[in-house]
Design a protein that fits this description.
- It is built from 5 helices and 17 strands.
- By secondary structure, the protein is α+β, with helices and mostly antiparallel strands.
- Among the domains are: 57 residues, Tumor Necrosis Factor Receptor, subunit A, domain 2; 40 residues, no CATH class; 58 residues, Tumor Necrosis Factor Receptor, subunit A, domain 2 (Ribbon), CATH 2.10.50.10.
- Strands 1-2-4 form a 3-stranded antiparallel sheet, with no helix packed on it.
- Strand 8 and strand 9 form a beta hairpin.
- The radius of gyration is 59 Å and the shape is elongated.
- The chain starts with a helix and ends with a helix.
Length: 276
């Protein structure tokens, strides 16, 4: 049991030695001899100068208290580290030789070089005011930068034939050609172009109409069903006198359609029978 306690105590001692913060070197870092004394040229970082010369270099400078720093190697005073509060955010911790670096939350920006306070970040079309807020650019001015003063629109155009179109809160006014005064020389010198263009347009439209009508006719013909030829009606022979009379009439009509050649043939046959 006693051995276990000794091991635990040893581990705690070793761990405690690891957690000891690095101490700032004390005294003068560089010096020059001055008779029997030395004069300090530069203190260690985080030390302030107590006196310029003395018998021992380590007694010429002394470390600053916690949360304090020195701005230079021969400063006689220490400065308190800045604390980031409110809408400020911490960007870099304080060191023995440098102050804390603070920033501002999103949508805000530092009000001075030290960022000791934050102000509203003015976007495009706005400008900052004296009370650290933003306002829209007045009429006739614009701002296309972040957190800048509004500037007046341009008032002159270099070319006398140009006209100026007003800008807005973000863009400047622009100069451009006066389109109402620009006339193509083709239409001034030769007036036949409009007539030729009209005739050409009418011809093209007429050609398209003809093609369309022709295509419709072809399509209708293709869709029309072919003509159906009805077969002749063949009647079955019967003893009905009316049917026989109809057939005989049909036969005689067919005989008449043959013409004079058939009649002469019948006459010759009748003459032969009489002779016999």
């Amino acid at each position: 049991m006693s051995s276990l306690l000794w091991v635990t105590a040893l581990l705690m001692l070793v761990q405690g030695s690891w957690c000891v913060p690095e101490r700032t070197p004390k005294g003068c870092k560089s010096w020059t001899l001055n008779g029997s004394n030395v004069c300090c040229d530069s203190c260690h970082a985080g030390n302030r100068l107590l006196r310029k010369c003395g018998p021992k270099p380590q007694d010429l400078c002394t470390p600053c208290r916690p949360n304090m720093y020195t701005k230079g190697p021969t400063n006689s005073e220490c400065n308190r580290c800045t604390q980031c509060v409110g809408v400020q955010i911490l960007l870099k911790e304080c060191t023995p030789s440098s102050d804390t670096v603070c920033g501002c939350k999103e949508g805000l920006m530092c009000g001075n070089d030290k960022c000791s306070f934050c102000i509203d970040k003015c976007g495009k079309g706005q400008e900052p005011t004296e009370n650290r807020s933003c306002r829209p650019c007045p009429n006739g001015t614009f701002n296309d930068q972040i957190h800048q003063k509004c500037k007046p629109w341009s008032t002159k155009c270099p070319n006398p034939n140009d006209i100026m179109s007003n800008g807005d809160a973000i863009t400047d006014s622009k100069c451009g050609p006066d389109t109402d005064k620009i006339i193509s020389p083709i239409y001034v010198e030769d007036e036949t172009w409009p007539l030729l263009l009209t005739v050409l347009t009418a011809f093209v439209m007429m050609l398209l109409a003809i093609i369309l009508v022709t295509a419709m006719k072809i399509s209708i013909r293709r869709k029309r069903p072919p003509a159906v030829i009805k077969p002749p009606i063949i009647r079955t022979p019967t003893d009905d006198p009316r049917t026989l009379i109809a057939i005989e009439c049909s036969f005689h009509e067919a005989e008449q359609e043959h013409g004079s050649s058939s009649e002469s043939l019948v006459s010759s046959e009748a003459s032969k029978q009489l002779i016999r």
